[in-house]
Design a protein that fits this description.
The chain has 265 residues and is of the alpha/beta class. It has one domain: Rossmann fold. The protein is 44% helix and 14% strand. It is built from 9 helices and 7 strands, in the order E-H-E-H-E-H-E-H-H-E-H-E-H-H-E-H. The chain has a 7-stranded parallel beta sheet with strand order 3-2-1-4-5-6-7, with helices on both faces.
Length: 265
């Protein structure tokens, strides 16, 4: 991978593990400076019972050739989110890329709070709706702070991690993801005059820690590494004509064909 992003400052939310870690690693692989937010600083006080901390993620970014900077942040607290952006202001004076990846909708399956994902919506706690929809607010708030900075420079990229929800069966999750895509379209429309691109990105079945823990329930033959999504974000960030994609949604595999990157072996 060419180190095309050595002058790029990126922020990836929810990067303790999973897709967020993969995105941070993919940006680091391209040479970027990557700020990573998450709640888990050490495994003894993990937010969910899965491996991974923001400290580990930053180390992996460094090993990939980038510069990883972990910041503990609970995205439920707007003041903590603002502090992240103020730290970036103080250390870098700009932000080039924001990736809104933080998501709480899956956590109930890991902790047992929501039980099986294929249960009907009326058998799940009402709080399952909030756990999914709150992440839309997280993306909105982080984008609110990012847009204030990117519009001044008249440059930037915001990527919202989403999914194609053409199938029925999980209304809280599906409606939240549709909302994310609408947020992408709305922000892209308003930010276009400022040369700030906003794109929804659809990973496939990703070999996250949680998926691998439950591998018996998945067909992993066509699965993707978390870093595959990171390479997609890096390709978008390096594209000088990325505005042509603003407001749209893309599968990671489709961008791989367009930009010519591959998954990890």
């Amino acid at each position: 991978m060419n180190r095309t992003l050595t002058d790029t400052i990126a922020l990836v939310t929810g990067a303790s593990r999973g897709v967020g870690l993969g995105i941070a690693a993919g940006l680091g692989e391209a040479g970027a400076t990557v700020y990573l937010t998450g709640r888990t600083v050490n495994t003894e006080q993990a937010a969910v019972p899965l491996p991974g901390t923001i400290m580990d993620s930053a180390r992996i970014v460094n090993e990939q050739g980038g510069h990883g900077i972990p910041i503990r942040c609970d995205h439920n607290d707007d003041q903590q989110v603002e502090a992240v952006f103020r730290q970036i202001d103080g250390e870098q004076s700009r932000l080039d890329v924001l990736v809104n990846n933080a998501w709480a909708g899956y956590e109930g399956y890991v902790t047992g709070k929501h039980m099986a994902p294929d249960m009907p919506f009326w058998s799940k706690p009402i709080a399952y709706w909030d756990d999914n929809m709150v992440a839309v607010r997280w993306a909105y708030v982080a984008s609110w702070f990012a847009a204030q900075r990117m519009t001044v420079r008249r440059a930037g990229l915001i990527v919202n991690i989403s999914v194609d929800v053409s199938a029925y069966g999980n209304p809280a999750y599906n409606i939240a993801k549709v909302a994310v895509d609408r947020l992408t379209a709305e922000m892209a429309h308003m930010l276009r005059p400022y040369e700030v691109a906003v794109i929804s990105l659809y990973p496939g079945l990703v070999r996250t820690e949680n998926v691998l823990k439950n591998a018996a329930y998945f067909d992993l033959s066509q699965s993707e590494s978390p870093q595959f999504t990171g390479r997609a974000v890096a390709a978008l960030a390096a594209d000088s004509n990325v505005m042509r994609h603003s407001g749209k949604a893309f599968a990671v595999a489709d961008l791989a064909r367009e930009y010519g990157f591959t998954d990890l072996p």
